[in-house]
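CORE FACILITY INTAKE
Project code: CF-77B
Contact: R.S. (postdoc)
Sample description: multi-component assembly, two entities in total
Requested service: structural model of the whole complex
Turnaround: standard
Below are the sequence entries exactly as provided by the requester. Do not edit them.
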Amino acid sequence: MPRQAAALKPIEKVQRYPLDAFLADIGDIGDIEWTSEPTDLKRRSRDFFWYSPILSEQLKDKLADVIVTPKDENEVIRIAAACARYRIPLTPRGGATGNYGQCVPLEGGVVLDMAAMNRIEWQKPGRVRVQAGAKLWDIDAATRPHGFELRMHPSTKRSAQIGGFVAGGSGGAGSVTFGGMREPGNILAARIVTLEERPRAIELRGDAAQKISRAYGTTGIITELEMPLAPAQAWIDVIVAFEDFIEAIRFGRSIAMADGIVKKLVSPIEWPLPQHFAAFRSFCPEGKCLVLGMIGDMSMESFETLLEPLRGSITYKAPADDSLGKVPLYEHTWNHTTLQMLKADRSVTYLQCLYPHDRLVDAATEVAKMFGDEVMQHLEFIRINGVMAANGIPVIRYRSPERLYEIIAGFEACGVMIANPHVVTLEDGSRYKRVDADQLGFKREVDPMGLLNPGKMRSFVPHQ
Amino acid sequence: MPRQAAALKPIEKVQRYPLDAFLADIGDIGDIEWTSEPTDLKRRSRDFFWYSPILSEQLKDKLADVIVTPKDENEVIRIAAACARYRIPLTPRGGATGNYGQCVPLEGGVVLDMAAMNRIEWQKPGRVRVQAGAKLWDIDAATRPHGFELRMHPSTKRSAQIGGFVAGGSGGAGSVTFGGMREPGNILAARIVTLEERPRAIELRGDAAQKISRAYGTTGIITELEMPLAPAQAWIDVIVAFEDFIEAIRFGRSIAMADGIVKKLVSPIEWPLPQHFAAFRSFCPEGKCLVLGMIGDMSMESFETLLEPLRGSITYKAPADDSLGKVPLYEHTWNHTTLQMLKADRSVTYLQCLYPHDRLVDAATEVAKMFGDEVMQHLEFIRINGVMAANGIPVIRYRSPERLYEIIAGFEACGVMIANPHVVTLEDGSRYKRVDADQLGFKREVDPMGLLNPGKMRSFVPHQ
């Protein structure tokens, strides 16, 4: 009997989908956990899209009809088969730490909560195989004793799941060395379940695994991932304060470009953003711009050597401590920089940018001149296609959608590319305004009816 | 008593230097090993300069007057003091695997053989401190059980010493990831002894350690080095065969630029060079150009994925085995590529180049068109200042010095920079035709009389 069967109340409004039939199907054999409690539906149909006032308005009323929590791949297959049979949308949900509503069910239906599929399947030197619902922090905790760690993680490492990261993320701490998730070699394999009446489980190895990367679960339900690991290092958290942002960028770039300096994070952050870094506030001098870093212990002396000719001073330096109960430095980088300010001031939002790597300082100077206090810049160094580049995650004082789009146009006029985080589709959120051709083609194979996370891959039109 | 005192024969020719007084000084207290046996003098005044017919002619008669082999830094200090007192040149000698006569005593005097100072002082995670005479292979053998290895090594790893590598080398296997020896962070510290009547031992840390990098021992006698280590990886040796060299370059570059693929070596090599790779000849198909690689085990599948769209085929793939008695794959890369051909054909020589990273394929095509069979190209991918670049070590069918200089001019016309390996001075061998200003200034402090390896730093003029 379904464990939460008691929660199934008579549904008074007209059902969008034949849920009773669906539940009867998946409940028939075993004990698949599900809920349709309104508070559950509300809480588990959301992610951190509220960073965007535009998405916040657009997505706030989107609700699943039922949340289903499979324990294993067999249950995933049964759920997928029932969704196919009754033409019910299915939207996979990981840790729900994303910012674009990637796990918000635009057309309702089933939200597939992967939290219970969190097993570490195996570890070998340099690689790990996990179920998609494993949390990044737990994976690191499991691999570190063997001398390895995930190559990269978002600032939401403590709650994000690996499946969600691969399905929606692009990179994070570690990408300054290994590049983003989409660089060849950063996903070894993915196992997916198709959305068909007779679902198939497919192993995608090597380049084929990229078919599920940043596809929001539209190209198959990810059940397992095989990820490459980095040798675990003794990381030193460091904060360096500078008089102005351009100096912070120059120093950050010199560290980013120094291949002899082992690093996981190089994040120049403009004042007044550090004003909101509560846990590290005493190390953030008033009015100063920062570079936050995670530096290999053996490289710390060289890091300080590169700082010598510049007018920067180290205000914090300590071994990285990622134990629960402590706020890690990395929770002030990537989109946590934005979050730290949002905690105090809900009137701000953010953008996602790629600064031109060959005129980084010029572009940052132009942006500062164009927008003044309305934009607070924040960069993350990251390798892209073998070149050291800088992502930007500026925090914006929000006035209106129109003004936000003016600001986007302004950034673009400065030569900064924008991946708009105020949209829900893969295409609109891409720097290239299109979805990967491989992914679109693959979707036809694995989700012919277009039931997986519908509305996210705009280019896809199911056959009638 | 000096152990080799019996070898001191009456020296019949007129002595250039007051050797008897020198030997009396260093023999006074302890037991410093030395020899002036003619066969020793001849054998231990040379390196692999004979790769260059020009240097071969120029250096073949250069001889030390005495070879001294210190056991510890105290002995180095006594030898240095005696050299200063009697104004005798001192040229440090490591494994003598260099190709520019860096340890050839142009003005005779003392050759300081560092072979007995080969102790591993200590290891910590990510770093090692060693005496300058430690062999690279021995350092790796000592650090691997602790999970680490040297970040980079030349193809002469089995006989090269760390002091000589730092004093004369530029990079090697590993530089495709960590860049060359001169990148910040790749030398943590160096301890040197000055050439003065009261020699000082100086610890150079961080950037200061670069004062002895590629200075041929002209800026102090290196006694100890603290080197950063890389986590030891399970490396896979791989050979990929291509129809033409341009395809090999394209594939090599795609691997070099893929930051998600862990690698230590990416070496495109033009046919007929592989014809001379005796130990791997059966894996080198007739007429095919190769890419030799050392790839992290966990990245091998991704490596093969990137090969799929290209017309290349893997002819060899096996875990790297660096045990003595086997010929390692890396002994076919860097300047061992040249050596393998020289073993069969002493009529060839080589150049050292930096190809333009943004028009690598064009430059290689132009070189091929300009010189045909006279030049056999060979590239080594290496990071320089944070950018993935390609060194070239082409093998040249030698005709005359004049023709060699025409070829150099031809390469330069194709946009390829040359670091001429047919010269003995630091300045002439530099891509920039000058010695580092820091090194020149530092030399005044540590070798005011210009007795350290005289003739190698052309810009230095001792005070009268």
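Facility notes:
- Chain A touches chain B at residues 124-127, 147, 151, 177-179, 183-186, 188, 205-207, 228-229, 231, 233-234, 256-262, 296-299, 301-306, 308, 383, 385-388 (CB under 8 Å).
- The two ends of chain A are 36 Å apart (CA to CA).
Invoice: internal transfer
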